[in-house]
Amino acid sequence: MGFLLDSDIDELCSSLGESARDFAGRRILITGARGFLGRYFTDVFLRLNAKVLKDPCEVIALDNMITAGQLGADLPKDRSFAFVNHDIIKPFYPERPVDFVLHAAGIASPYYYRKWPLETLEVATTGLKNMLELAKASGARLLFFSSSEIYGDPDAAHVPTKESYNGNVSSLGARACYDESKRLGETLIRIYHEKFGVKGMIVRPFNVYGPGMQKLDYRVLPNFAAKILANEAVTLYGTGKQTRTFCYVTDAIRGFLQVLLKGEPGEPYNIGNPSPEISMVDLVKTIQTSTNLTVKANIAEHPDSYPADEPQRRCPDITKARIQLGYEPKVALDEGLRRFFDWAQGAYK
Ligand SMILES: NC(=O)c1ccc[n+]([C@@H]2O[C@H](COP(=O)([O-])OP(=O)(O)OC[C@H]3O[C@@H](n4cnc5c(N)ncnc54)[C@H](O)[C@@H]3O)[C@@H](O)[C@H]2O)c1
Question: What is the pTM of this model?
């Protein structure tokens, strides 16, 4: 079983249409390239080379492997792919200028950013600044992966949340190393655009899920899948009434590439699937009905390993990406859950 679904990669490549050709002959630097999204981008670019592009693109993959795990260590063997084990908190000087930088390095799972708060903060700030310097020197377009977490815990009047909402975030809370550093990262993008003309775009992803998430990722869906497939009860922290939205990975990757190619420099874009906004209790029920698996659930207090001040509701308003970029998520939650759990049944053995 591969680390993702072949049919998904093909579907995604064909849905990119003509814009795929913008990558022909280009050099693409990906940071965090052996993480969930970085591996996905890599596979999409290598598949475009195999099926669409006459003049192949080149992928330069940077990762220090801090959370890349077993799936990340399994490197593709392809002459258009080069891996460099590098901590991007230190500067990186490519041999030749690059055309695109996807700054996907980060410590994304609450379990890991609680464990490594300084590394989490630095990869989104110093690491990003190093990549902005590189983009400035190369004249590259850069995409920064911020997060929906920069909105903190919005009040009801700001859910679904637009990009113009300034957030309700604590600089001292247990999540601050992540959400405050992503906020500062956005400031850096804006400064580099205004001061040096660097074409840096910002995406704010809302809970991306799908094949390729590691069993020990500790984010909600891989965590649930690992438990359910081992016939163990899943644990819902707090009340179980907190809501999220979930965006299937093919929809998210298409949205990220649309922002990279067509987004306004210095501007943020929400990328996610606003429907349904679902509570954790209802998510468990939807997993059961869409996969036919038996799901047992408990409710418990937050353990020390998980930051307790989690947002109560999270749901994107994606009007800006819809209008400016034609972005539209296509995979419904029950269909995405079926694809993810089918894949996990083989991959999480
Ligand atoms: N997946 C989501 O739902 C989601 C949501 C919001 C934001 N994001 C952001 O998108 C980016 C990619 O997310 P992901 O799901 O692929 O995360 P991931 O944890 O699967 O991958 C991140 C990768 O970055 C690498 N990394 C961390 N620090 C590094 C450093 N200093 N130098 C080099 N490599 C380093 C890790 O080893 C890992 O392979 C992250 O910045 C994350 O914060 C993701």
Answer: 0.97
Q: Which domain holds residue 323?
A: 6-206+248-272+316-330
Query: Measured in Å, how far apart are the chain's first and last C-alpha atoms?
Result: 10
Using CA atoms, how far residue 62 sits from 29, 34, 75, 122, 155, in Å, is 8, 8, 12, 16, 38
- 193 in any annotated domain: yes
Beta bridge partners of 298: 235
What is the Å distance from ligand 1's center to 106 Cα? Answer: 4
pLDDT in tens, 56-111: 999 999 999 999 999 999 999 999 999 999 999 999 999 999 999 999 999 999 88
Whether 258 contacts 325, CB under 8 Å:
yes
Average pLDDT, the chain: 95
How far is CA 61 from each of CA 50, 65, 72, 104, 105, rounded to the nearest angstrom? Answer: 18, 11, 11, 11, 11
Q: Is the confidence at residue 1, as pLDDT, over 90?
A: no
**Which protein residue's CA is at the shortest distance from atom 21 of ligand 1?**
35
Ligand 1 proximity of 66 Cβ (cutoff 6 Å): yes
Q: How far is the CA of 207 from the centre of ligand 1 (A)?
A: 12
Asked if residue 282 belongs to a domain, the reply is no
Q: Does residue 295 belong to any structural domain of this protein?
A: no
Whether residue 90 is contained in a domain is answered as yes
Residue 111 known to be catalytic: no
What's the total number of domains in the chain?
1
pLDDT at 218: 87
